[in-house]
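Slide 14.
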Amino acid sequence: MKYLLVGLGNPKDKYHFTRHNAGADGLLLALAGCDWRTKDLYEFFDDDLDDNEIIAILPSTFMNDSGLAVKKAAKDFNVKNKNIIIIHDDADLPLGQVKLSFASGSAGHRGVDSTIEYLGAKNFWRLRYGLGRPEGEPDLTDFVLQSWLPNEKEILLDFAAELAEEIIKLKTAGWFFKKNLTLRE
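Slide 15: predicted structure.
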């Protein structure tokens, strides 16, 4: 079985380790040391040594158009929507909280909006990483584009370590995220 893990974020170096790149940075940290390759519209890591093939991608498109890269990778690697896991930030969850959902709406996240638009469906998984929401901050643009504070980086590193464990379980036991999510709740 093939699984496509997608870390959402913006591609330029100035966005690395900003809150909005939690999905991409978390996936990169979880797969640190892996051999990433570049393809049109995304960077990818492909590990097909066992029965379950894990393909991880980092779109090279900006967040608001990331669905284009997701659609292309799903087609390139022949992965069904139900086996796609989009990893992204969520300001509506407290810092460090993780929530997994299937076939849900975007809740206003433009990267997820784009993915729904390009796939023509929402029957994929979303692994949302909580950023928290600053009080009295109606416009989150500045907040999500800021770098992590030192204590927030530590929480992100914990998330990446737990994500790495979940990827190993997914690889060895098949679809594991669904019922046995061990990430911080």
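Speaker note: The domain at 2-180 is CATH 3.40.50.1470 (Rossmann fold).
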